[in-house]
Specification:
Layout (H helix, E strand, L loop, with lengths): L9 H7 L17 H14 L13 H13 L2 H9 L40
Length: about 120
């Protein structure tokens, strides 16, 4: 497994860790490697593959899935989203035709661009 491709940086982890269940200060069982588990969930979201295809380096797929379900039902992911939503990350910004409108003439409608014999655009 290529740890260089992990998503959760040390800075982000420092902000998220206090909001996760299974810390030493929590009652009950201590969570086994919350950071690796979170990376497994993010891997699954990025790839879109079934839980059964989770690389074995993340642990048993069924254990990871059951933990994911507990966290989802317990509102853990909502708390994480609340913590990190204040600072947008514009590493990836997507704009497509479903959110951007253009005037009909922008698509090369009748008339188009008229060129002079020299190849320069003609003034209207």
């Amino acid at each position: 497994m290529d740890e260089q491709r992990f998503v959760v940086t040390d800075d982000i982890w420092a902000r998220l860790e206090p909001h996760l269940p299974g810390k030493e200060s929590d009652s009950g069982v201590t969570g086994k490697d919350n950071r690796l588990f979170l990376e497994a969930v993010l891997w699954r979201v990025r790839t879109g593959l079934p839980w059964r295809d989770l690389p074995s380096e993340f642990g048993n797929w069924n254990s990871v899935f059951r933990r994911f379900r507990r966290w989802a039902k317990g509102g853990v992911f909502e708390r994480l989203f609340e913590e990190i939503r204040g600072e947008p990350d514009f590493e990836y910004a997507l704009i497509d035709g479903t959110i951007v409108q253009a005037h009909q003439k922008a698509s090369g409608a009748k008339g188009g661009l008229r060129l002079r014999p020299s190849g320069a655009p003609a003034a209207d």
